[in-house]
C-alpha cells in the first residue's frame, strides 16, 4: 500500500542528503581553491626570499633531508655543481624552461612547482599536489563536521513536520469513521488546508447526492407501498369472488373485473418504475439533440386509436421542426402522460389539441382538452404524487403529472397549468429551454 508519509519522508531525506553532499562538494572545492592560492603564494614568497640573496651559497644552506614533514621541496640549479641543491632527498626536478608556476609529474606523483632565476642560478620551489588535497579535505571536514551532526536532528524534524502536515487527513478520516450511516451533514472545510478543501467539497457533494438518492428511495418505497396496497387488495378480493362465482355470466364478470384490476396494478407499477428512474443523477446524463415536433407527432400517432375509440377529436399544432437538447425517452414519457391524461378526462365528442410553439429562448409544449377542467385551488396539487382531484372519476394512479414535472426538472424547464381554449377544459404542459438547462449541465 502506498503511503504518503513514507513517500514524503523518503523524498525529503533524499533531498536533505543530496543537499549535504552538494554542500560538502562545494565546501571542498572552495577549500581547495583557497589552499592552492595560499600555498602558491607561500611558494612564490619562498622563491623570492631565496633570490634576494643574489647568489646562494648552496654549500652552507642547511638540508632538510632529516625532516620528512617538510612540505616544500627547494631546488637550486647552479652551473658550478654537478648535482643541483635539493632541500630533501628526492630525485631532482626537471630544469625549468621559464619562470612561473607549472604542474608536473615527478617521482611517481603530481607536483606543483614555481621557478625563479637570479644571475646564474634557477630556484624551484615544489610541493606534492596530494599534500594540498589532504590539507583541503581536512579543512572541509572540520567545517562540515557540525553540520553532519545536525542531519539526524533534521531527519527527526522532517518526521514531525510531515506528521503535522498530514494530521488534517487523519482527523478527517476519524471524523468520517465516527459518522452514523444515515448522516449526510457536510464536513467542515474552514479549518482544513487549501490542498484538502477540493477533496472535502467533492465529498460533501457526494454526500448530498447520496442523501437525495436515499430520500428518493425511501419516498419511492413509501409511495409504492401506499399506491399498491389498495389495487392489490382489490385484485385479491376480485380473485376470491371469481373463485366463488358459479360457472356462467357471474364468473365471466368477476374474471373481467380481475383482469381490469391486474391491468391497473401493472400500469401503476410501470409508472412507479418510470418515476424511480428520474432520480437526481438522471439530470447528469448528457442531453442529445432531438426534434420536439417529431417526438410529439409520434406520440400522437401512437395514441390516436385511443382517441378514435373514445370518439375524441385529436388535433396537432406542430411546427415543421422544433430542435432542442434533451433525453428523448424521458420527454416521450412526459408527452405520453400529458396526452393520455387529457384523453381520460375528455368526454365523448370533445377534442384534445397537442401544440408545440416557440416560447422566448425555448419551446412550449401544451396539451389542451375540452373536459370538465379543474378548480383553481387544485391546479398546483395535481403535480403531487398520487393526487387525483376531488371530483375525479377517471381511472388512474395520480402519478402521470408528477412524472411530467420530474421530466421538466431534469431538463431545466418547468410545468404550467391553465384554462383550456375559450375558458373551457384545461391546458397542461411544460416549457423547455433551447439550450441545456442548469439541471442538465
CA radius of gyration is 50 Å
**Extended strand count:** 12
- SSE arrangement, N to C: HEEEEEHHHEHEEHEEHEE
Q: What's the CATH topology name of the largest domain?
A: Heat Shock Protein 90
As residue ranges, the low-confidence spans are 58-70
> Distance between the terminal alpha carbons, to the nearest Å?
37 Å
What is the helix tally?
A: 7
Oligomerization state: single chain
Q: Helix proportion of residues, in percent?
A: 40-55%
What characteristic shape results from the CA principal axes? rod-shaped
Question: Residue-averaged pLDDT, rounded?
Answer: 77
Short key terms for the protein model shown above:
3 domains; alpha+beta; Heat Shock Protein 90; Beta-Lactamase; rod-shaped; single chain; 5-stranded antiparallel β-sheet; 7 helices; 441 residues; 12 strands
Can you put this structure into words, describing what you see?
- The chain is of the alpha+beta class.
- The protein has 3 domains: 4-139, Beta-Lactamase, CATH 3.30.450; 197-277, no CATH class; 282-433, Heat Shock Protein 90 (2-Layer Sandwich), CATH 3.30.565.10.
- Helices cover 50% and strands 17% of the residues.
- It is built from 7 helices and 12 strands.
- The chain has helices at residues 4-51, 129-177, 197-244, 249-277, 292-309, 328-345, 400-410; strands spanning 73-77, 85-86, 100-106, 109-117, 122-128, 288-291, 313-317, 323-326, 351-359, 362-369, 414-419, 426-433.
- The strands form 3 sheets. The chain has a 5-stranded antiparallel beta sheet.
- A hairpin with a 2-residue loop joins β9 (351-359) and β10.
- α3 packs antiparallel against α4 and α6 runs antiparallel to α7 (400-410).
- The radius of gyration is 50 Å and the shape is rod-shaped.
- Mean pLDDT is 77; it is low at 58-70.
